[in-house]
User: Fold this.
Amino acid sequence: MKLTKKETWLAAGGGLGIGLLNGLLGSGGGLLAVPMLKKLGLDQKRAHANAVAVILPITAVSVIGYLTAGRVALQDAFIYIPGGIAGSILGTWILSKLSAPILRRIFGVFMIWAGVRLWMR
Amino acid sequence: MDAINWAAVAAGFASGIIGGMGLGGGAVLLIYLSVFAGVQQLTAQGINLIFFLPIGLIAVIIYAFQKKIEWKPVAILAATGAAGSLGGSYLVGLLGGDLTTKLFAVLLIAFGLHEVFFRKQKTGLQSGASHGILKSNKCSVEVGKDGKDTAE
Assistant:
């Protein structure tokens, strides 16, 4: 996919924003990835798929931080992962089946929910 | 074989669906961890993050096979995102989380509402509005119900 120069700068700035939010809160910056990707020209469903790819390395960085700070151990997460993998596969299938407008509204609900949780922190 | 913790499997399953769809922020797992598993906040956040790594990886592999991934924008966002993440962790120490957290919370809610209630854009010809204001060049033309226009 070709990006104009302006879009490249936009992506760089947006990425910083995503990461800042992620670093400040420990997670959640991914929510910014979807609108950011849409601004770069992706449609709703592709934006969601690529958002996962964006959040992945950012999460890895955060994980390293958490592990070195001793807040968590890798094995703490193990029991949740098998169910999670099954869910993830199902999730990719659901994404392909949902209409873009419905996906957008569902995403909106998740954003509101994240905001409410954040406010109550 | 030890009894399987089905609640944990279910929580993981639900979180996996949400994470695989790029919805994020759902915190199904986080809520399960703090409310039902009695895990401390920071540990729960850590588990949530670790959990996402294999989940996200599986989803990305599937999307990549489906040719849905646009590597260039992803690379830029991910690289600057990772840098920003380190900066953000540093900033939280300086700024103290509270004000920025509240600000982001408001922004998220506002944007979320925008997404929930978005209207599909209609072109001017199809809008069916009884009157509209059209601007062309430097003059405003108001088109009334009866189709007559009054120029200013």
User: Anything to note?
Assistant: Chain B touches chain A through 88 residues (CB under 8 Å). Residues 6-135 of chain B form one domain. Helices of chain B lie at 6-20, 28-36, 41-65, 71-95, 97-116. The CA atoms of residues 130 and 145 of chain B lie 5 Å apart.
